Amino acid sequence: MRKGVLEYCILSILSRKEAYASSIIDELKAANMIVVEGTLYPLLIRQKNQGLLSYRWEESTQGPPRKYYVITDKGREVLSEMDAAWQEMVSTIQTLRNHD
Amino acid sequence: MRKGVLEYCILSILSRKEAYASSIIDELKAANMIVVEGTLYPLLIRQKNQGLLSYRWEESTQGPPRKYYVITDKGREVLSEMDAAWQEMVSTIQTLRNHD
DNA sequence: TTTGAATACCTTGTATCACAAAGTACCAAA
DNA sequence: TTTGGTACTTTGTGATACAAGGTATTCAAA
What we know:
Chain A is 60% helix and 17% strand. By secondary structure, chain A is an alpha+beta fold.
């Protein structure tokens, strides 16, 4: 029953292109999903420690350097498992919800 | 970001007919959703304390008396809010997932 | 030159929640 | 009267999301 929707969203965003924390927060916000820094930073570190992400530093002209996260092959594997798990969850809820 | 999928499932099940904890677990299991007693009992108590559920005792021929939970009017209201929130979550994920 | 605003990263403390495990209690059949 | 099945409850632990605060860099304005 452990959900991990947020992890799913992060991997999903990073599967399209690399990004740094603040930009991920913006993208989530644009999708109506509120996440704060205190949630996201530890989560990125966790996913990196699990081998799902790597990162590189990049200078910015607008302030301090940015930590760009990149999804790994293992991250893509896990993402596709999460796709399946999410689809199953959606259809489970649908079953429960329309059961008569 | 706190979702409460499990709360949603419980209200959904109880919106069809009253039930006691063990039968709810069986129904969830039938829908491929594993939930254990130590999760469900506190959750039912929480929802009761929030006024979403009430309960009554009923004797059983098969063992100890059962605590049948019943959804309240407020519970039905919250359930319909959860319906909307769930639909929004599903479409948010879809947006993130298919964004290009 | 220093100050402040903007950007970005990180940490700490707290509350909640799902689970494992153990405990309590009732009943019927062997 | 003991055993097995059913049912409810509690306790302890780990994970996680959040609020709040802290550190550090850059640039522009005072």
